[in-house]
Fold these 3 entries.
Entry 1:
Amino acid sequence: MAENDQNDRRLAAILAADVVGYSRMMGADEAGTLAALKHHREAVFDPAVVRHKGRVVKLIGDGTLVEFASVVDAVRCALDIQRSARSGSRREGSPIVLRIGVNLGDIIIDGDDIYGDGVNVAARLEPLAEPGGVCIASIVNESVGNRIDVTFRDCGEVAVKNIARPIRIWKWHPDSDAVAAQPAAPAAVAAAAEPEPPSIAVLPFDNMSGDPEQEYFSDGITEDIITDLSKIAGLLVIARNSSFAYKGKNPDIRAVGRELGVKSVLEGSIRRAGNRVRITAQLINAANGGHLWAERYDRDLTDIFAVQDEVTRHIVDALKVKLTAGESARIADLPTKSLEAHDLMLRARELLFGQRNSRDMYDQVISLLGRAVELDPDYAEAYAGIAMAHNLDFQNHWTGAPDAFERSARFASLAVEKGPNVPYARFVAAVIAIWSRDLEKAKRESEAALAINPNYAQALGTLALVEIYSGNPEAAIPVAERCMRLDPGFVHQTLHFVGTAYLVAGKYETAAATFRERIRLSPKTDLSRGLLVSALGHLGEVDEAKRVWAEVKQISPKYSFAGHLARLPFTNPADAERIKEGFAKAGLGE
């Protein structure tokens, strides 16, 4: 995971709430007011925060501060609270009325507490809300777009204490809300926020073979279990990238649950000796560290696929998830009939997923997978791995082969032909289609991968890119946010996609905030800085744009904004022109 010096600051949505007339109410009836406030928190406020995946940071008398990873969740929570409270007060005559402010901005984390401009602005917005209403900053209104069921009213710019420049604010009140105007039972309001399915992270199984050379085998079995679980729509499964950040560590499972946002964690070990394999696995409740299920398997190596199938089904049973007939069949699918070919694939996959791209890696992968397809000419995943290796060669010019891209496309087609229901084959085909600027095909392949594997974070990433470059940037944002939920350890990459989507959509304030967060997580990025310059140009922040451009040229003296833009496969020239226009407004030349 990220180091501590990266974790002490982040972009977050902040909700600040306060009770209207609290001091007067306490003076009139202290006991009654405290009882009403307690009831409001237990019946309305706290359940809404839980439903919308927020974290109550602190209670200050009648005030509350809540942090959210998603600005949409924060706004939906605010609306949910105010609608529920209005319905409840009508029925019960409750005296508790809140004002709520919501902001999106940079925060500083200090233990369980948070500080910074993001918090300060939220606290300044809250008193500006009407009693029973919500007041949000312009960046929040811009970010949520049409992803909520209300429209906020533009209330212009206001100067607020200790904030250097005016803030444009937007307001909403349930009196103007068709949904809130209808009397509703609390259960109906709760149904608006669909609960998240059971969630799990699979940590890398420990290699107990006493031979470091067997590491690829324990990692490969872990990845296969992740893939099998990911095929189940009723389960949220954290991606390999994020789970494997804990490799070689001995983390507190409760901390893993908090960091990855899951309710359960699978851990285990693998010992391989000759033709025998021993696998131990235990499913743990991430909230309290209690065991939900544990099992040990002593089998012949020839039974390895059956063991993986059993582990997956035991987890599903323990989490009380129902499998559809299609999901059950997909889990039972054998990737190959050749154990030797599968072993070669595991070795090659370890190299491909290791993110240590080099000519040596390429040569090894091509050799290993070439032998795998000789052993099993129908091994779809092996063909997909060869396609990806050739694509990396095309991007990095390792061999200088003029037909590297054509090779990657040919093997990707073979992979899909041999395994139309293999998610990795579909994903690789989507990646190569993006490089060939065939966005329609890239979308079909991404959606095919997700139909087989609804938790496939990388396929969500390619789908988000397709939507951006096809002229549908606002459709890309929830897709990319889902990708970040499934792969929280790889957020730094996906944030670049989100920032690009906001930039193309003309939401420059949110684009700039998102690119800044990406830069914080990836300090050496030139690509995000280049697009940040464009967003800043549109916002009229010329001095800041020039400062960021100076950083770009220091990090990558050969970086060319025009060259960067030319590589992006936009189908609508106006989208590329909008990015170019922002760069020009910053007063910068190449």
Entry 2:
Amino acid sequence: MADRFPLVVNSTTNQITEVMSGDDLLFDSTDLKTSTGNLVLNPAADVDIQQDIVNSTGNVKVDDELEVTGRLALGTTVGAGTDLRINRTWNNNAVTFMGLDMDITPTALASASRLVRLRNTGVDKFTIDVDGNTRTFGTLTVDGATTLSSTLNAVGAVDFDSTLNVDGNTTLVGTLGVTGATTLTTLTTSGDITVTGQATFTSAIDANSTLNVQGISTFQSNIVPSTDEGAGLGTSALPWAAAHIGEIEIANGTTGNDDNTITTATGDLFLTSAGGDITITGRVQMTSSDSDNNLTITSTDSTADIGPDLILYRNSSTPADDDGLGSIRFTGNNDLGVEQLYARIYSRATDVTDNTENGKVFIDVIDGGNNVNAMEITSAQVTIGGNLVVNGTQTVLNTTTLSVEDNTVELRRGNNLTAADGGIQVNLTTDANGASTSSQQLIWDNSASSWRTGDVVGNTTNYSSLVTEARDNDITGTLTVHSMLEDADYVTGSAATGTINFDAKGRNVLWYSQNATGDVTLNFRGDGSTTLDTMMDATEILTSTFVIPNGTTAFKVASVTVDGSAPTAVQWANGSAYPAGTPSGTDVYVFTIIKTGANAFTVLASQSTFS
């Protein structure tokens, strides 16, 4: 080494400008100092510094890697058991200080790259990735207020003694304990969460394990289930005894399904309000597989008031006459499986004027596919659109007057009836129990085949018969007729000629309007199915009138028969049998028929001429 010069010194500046290749520069118990400027060390290999590096005015700059194999202290003496220690005093308000400042530009990197990684025996305990995501693998205890503007992911237990504010997504695999008020934008946990203070969630909570909230929890956004339609409150073994819920909004599932269901694991679902009211806004649809007891409203009121009651309230801000108030509709499927309205009950406010309000109830049914009004009800009347059928044993009408607009009042309507008595009874007096003590009856006496009137007092009835076309008995007692009109058949469509049947049932006069065209044989009978002999008893008398007009050629009654046969005798007034007709006049024949025995009749006849 005596013939070598490892150092090259500039003769003008007296500076060492070069160290010969292959030689080392060793300062043994000697300081390396510069009076001014920087000390630049840029060897090809490592610089092994075993003593202090001191620069009183400038910086110590290392352009290559700086490897510290021992303990490192900046601004202080390293303490026992401490690997890295930084000790500085910040005392300038105009300076922005950085205790530890790392600025990495990752132009190309693997996905597992981390800005900060703390390990224990090769196992990660704390990491910060290139996006700023921070992850702790053990228990995180924070004594002061904590605000995270991005994501918090905790694999182990995290305990905050004060407030925790997280603006980003929060994922917990372990336990999160927060003593103060807590605001989480999004929380995802697979472990336990215990919040002893007030927790405010501005977004969703995704809890894979137990969420235990001991204080008040305010959800400003959503509680999101882990899967579509897969969330529950409580369990079958430990249900909620009392849930105080402000507002719950059920959004669409991830599949866009608008049908959302609240289902109990077992047993019934109870909704109880301390104030007594449960208000539901929107439509309510109930579905049950049972055929009865689908909707039950129970009142536990012990007074005599009416209850429970069902109110259909039309809360209109502009009420007007004939507004619809409410409707109960009865629907079912037709044979094509299409839902069809079959009946409904609804109401209208016919008058909404204060203190003079009126209402009406309607009942509609479907008939032949068309909606038909079956009944209208007001305070004044009940109108039934169809037939009224009462199947009870008694119908009581507490009205002053019963008005019937039908032409016929039918009694004893039914299938396979047999003949029986029937009629109308007018009660005159009743006892204290409403039972009749005296009355008047108009009844059909089936055994006598006649109409009768009855005077009923107690159990005694005194009957009197009325005259009918097919009567078999005379009227009992005295019949006083103040005025009588006879029934006549007035024939306008044809002229009298040949054999003419005079049906005695229902008429006493047969009158032709057109001039006769031939002589007439007049046959007296009951009707087409009843003989006069059957209709009359012996000694009974029938008086009939026959009227025919004549033209210039006169015709007459040339023959008289009874039931198609000649009578026993025909006797004419004035002794002239079958007198001739009157030309251009009207002949009126009067026949008095006397039944003298079985099929035996005497006819007393007369003719009068009018011209």
Entry 3:
Amino acid sequence: MMRAKNLVIVESPTKTKTLKKFLGQNWEIDASKGHIKDLPEKKLGVRVEDDFTPEYVTIKGKKKIIQKLRQSAKKASKIYLAPDPDREGEAIAWHIFKEVEKINPEVYRASFNEITKEAVLRGIQDAGSIDLNKVYAQLARRILDRLVGYKVSPLLWKTICRGLSAGRVQSVALRLICEREEQVQGFVPQEYWTITALLETEKKETFSAKLLKVNQKEVKIESQEKASDLVDDIKDKRFQVAEVKTQRKRKSPFPPYITSTLQQDAARRLNFASRKTMFVAQQLYEGVELGEKGSVGLITYIRTDSVRVAETAINNARGFIQKEFGKDYLPSKPRRFKIQKSAQEAHEAIRPTSLEHSPERIEKYLSRDQSKLYQLIWSRFLASQMSEALYDLTSVDIEAEKYLFRASSSMLTFDGFMKIYKEAKENGPEEEKETLPQMKEGDGLNLLKLTPDQHFTKPPPSFTEATLIKELESKGIGRPSTYAQIVYTIIQRKYISKEKRKIFPTDLGKTVNKILVEKFPQVFNVNFTADMEAELDKIAEGENDWVKVLKDFYIPFSATLEKVEKEKSEIKKQIQEKTDVTCDKCGSPMVIKWSRNGKFLACSAYPECKNTKSLNSKEDEALAQGEKCEKCGAPMLLKTGRYGKFLACSRFPECKNTKSFSLKIKCPEEGCGGEIVEKKTKKGRVFFGCSNFPKCDFATWFRPVAQSCPECGAEFLITKTSKAKGEILQCLKCKYEKIPETSTPELTEKDAKA
């Protein structure tokens, strides 16, 4: 058969539109839609005794894709494998290669950091062989995670409840969160005081200064009594300017974004969760339709830990800065930032692919989220090549005999890079320091007021997504492709919760962490996890053997596992919480146990007595509060039965009245008048239906939320989960959708394997 066209195989179908525009008619472009092979879902899939040989299987739904790729390979002149330029992409390329090499041996690995015509053509021209060292590094990571997950998770099932799982890296992130919360809860505030003087110059200009030293020693004021004594002693002293210092401070711009800093900044500035940031960034990288220009890749590759920038991009940025802002905003030399030793230097930082596509010019083609994130990336990149910001710092030392006060001010004299980019603080912007009046040494000052202020030391702040990612990066835990997945996983497992951006461990998370840290201290350990990342990096560089790394891990791990397996019963008893509740069937004390749906009360005399009671959430308790029994007027209690939650009279067994548990949301069927209640099918699946059933047959599998639809005015939305969009709120009537700020799209299949 005549092989006329070359074939390019990428991961994402979105990329095919952009690539077709660059490559023309003589090229065929197919997409694998992520990984095509993986370890099996329902068994270990690793022959440990045979040097950890993996048992790869075709991922469900990928059989037809593989068939199509093989058919395309038969017709192709040459095949270029072009998944993303990282270890996951290399593994995807390898699995595709094994499927097509016998059909057509003309197979090459092409990679490009950005989806622009120049980069794509250069990547194809420079195409070579698959880097097996990267493949082995990805394989080692996958097997490590599989060994930990499949060996430790059953222990959690047997000691806490079924359905739980442990992860090699995610569990260490959970440990950091739990330990931070312990620090916060165990923190004992220390009282201290400051004394501020309100002073006046001869020209009647006022300013504030703080007490700094007494007898040339740093002052420490631990009590109100000491503060009062100092105020009494200072108030009659003569205040005089001792020294005035003015210095120029230069503030340098930040490097362009890498994966971690983009996620952190998007969290602070845009309130984006890390998954949402990566989802939107992936769209910008793969290509967005820009009217007549077609699909255009707007930013470079988004999974990177290198701040390197191509010389062409630097020169383009410098030309743009001089043209748009003037020569004062352009430094004499291009800026180059220090690259960490662990960074993959072949990658670039995240930057716009072309400065022709300014945020203002293409805003009409972008979604709201795309526009926000693109503006951030654009500004940070340009700012990285701009001049320093200049400040004049003034400090004034003021003496009142043995007491030294100090006042300071900061004035921005040249904004430089800050013209387009300013640092976003985790707790909001810093307050501006007041401008000081003109003073010189020897000037006398009038004391108008002395104010003692009480303060208390503060505990370390609870983690946010931004600070957690920063902590993971600083400790060498995870890699650019894994940060979003780490946070997403422990949220999905309900090991942590988010409140006003802050992350807290749940009771379940604390319990899981307690078992893992106590029983596997060497595995779920920050230093061990960071060292393992370094070992994986060495495999990728060809400096270490992947089988040896796995053996060095598995031998002590399996010994620990065998020991812990014998302690299951003891562990189970240790995590049960004692209560003051008495079993109403046998009189024994009840204990708190875990199930897949959370905590519940169980009789301690089990298995002789199998009585259980529900422990309901605060939200559900609040909904049930105030409900009265229609038969006897007694308060109704929230219960959980075979068919879901229900309300039962508190005077049971004297009064056996029950009714469905309502979400306090009206049924949407016109003229019905019922309320939506939570129910269960015979097989235990939760659904939501009308309280007027069978007269009204309204039902939905998706939990209603008491938020009205902004499009059609419907009284509630439903919560759905989509692979493409993650958790979304949708209107049943008009299908309006929105992504909650606390939720974000599902990771790509590639991210899920990372």
